[in-house]
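in:
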């Protein structure tokens, strides 16, 4: 499923690269960075708690999930409102991210707490793949918007849990 995200972004970027106008949205880029940071701070905190001796179970935090859901929804709405075809194409991938965060929330509610650090780490890494795809998308739009003829950039997305690495070269 996550591999499809990478393939989709690469397909969108191939389409966008052939267009004359690229609409990079710095606010969307900042939102993605902010949401990613917020998510990782909480997950790393829970990992530390669960990995402590003795383990401190990571209890369900409704405020964290509510804010994360609201932030992702705001980003999705912003990109849906965009007149840029490339941004509209990535909206489905943001919906997938929302679904995965909701599944994590429901699992957390059901379990009432996370007590295994390796589980929390695996979930964090899995969702970070989606954040990496969104970040790569925005950085690629930025690169395509104002290419530097002296610079040939490489943007890589890696997925450490499954050993999948996708590398794309963009030459202006």
């Amino acid at each position: 499923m996550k591999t499809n995200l990478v393939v989709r972004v690469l397909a969108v970027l191939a389409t966008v690269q052939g267009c004359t106008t690229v609409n990079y949205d710095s606010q969307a880029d900042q939102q993605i960075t902010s949401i990613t940071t917020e998510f990782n701070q909480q997950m790393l905190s829970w990992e530390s708690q669960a990995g402590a001796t003795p383990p401190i179970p990571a209890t369900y935090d409704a405020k964290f999930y509510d804010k994360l859901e609201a932030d992702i929804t705001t980003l999705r709405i912003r990109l849906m409102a965009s007149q840029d075809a490339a941004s509209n194409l990535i909206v489905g991938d943001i919906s997938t991210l929302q679904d995965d965060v909701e599944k994590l929330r429901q699992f957390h509610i059901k379990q009432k707490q996370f007590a295994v650090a390796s589980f929390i780490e695996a979930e964090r890494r899995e969702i970070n793949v989606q954040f990496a795809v969104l970040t790569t998308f925005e950085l690629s739009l930025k690169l395509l918007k104002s290419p530097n003829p002296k610079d040939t950039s490489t943007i890589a997305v890696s997925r450490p849990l499954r050993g999948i690495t996708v590398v794309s070269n963009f030459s202006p």
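note: Strands lie at 58-59, 113-114, 153-159, 164-170.
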